[in-house]
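Backbone-to-sequence.
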């Protein structure tokens, strides 16, 4: 059983917003740094944003100023607020530990298209 489950993806027009959620069913990520990753068709999986157990955040240059990562340890949930989405943000988005991911979940598809 994969302990991390992503949701919240969908089809959105350029400039739109989505909020992704990642639920940790085993309550493991409270003590770990976590990240949101994405994989576009034909490309390698890349780290989009990460957050430490204390809440320090880092972003890939491509999403800086548009995406916000957050976590609610009491709810075992991590979020990715994505604003001003662009077609190049189209990908399957995954959550996982950082820097050593464990088994990957199904991810959630984000499609940005007019």
């Amino acid at each position: 059983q994969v302990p991390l489950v992503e949701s919240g993806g969908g089809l959105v027009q350029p400039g739109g917003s989505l909020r992704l959620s990642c639920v940790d069913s085993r309550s493991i990520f409270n003590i770990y740094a976590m990240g949101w990753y994405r994989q576009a068709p034909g490309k390698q999986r890349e780290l989009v944003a990460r957050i430490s157990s204390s809440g320090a955040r880092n972003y890939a240059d491509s999403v800086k100023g548009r995406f916000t990562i957050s976590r609610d340890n009491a709810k075992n949930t991590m979020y990715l607020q994505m604003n001003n989405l662009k077609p190049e943000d189209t990908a399957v988005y995954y959550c996982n530990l950082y820097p050593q991911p464990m088994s990957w979940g199904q991810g959630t598809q984000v499609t940005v298209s007019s």
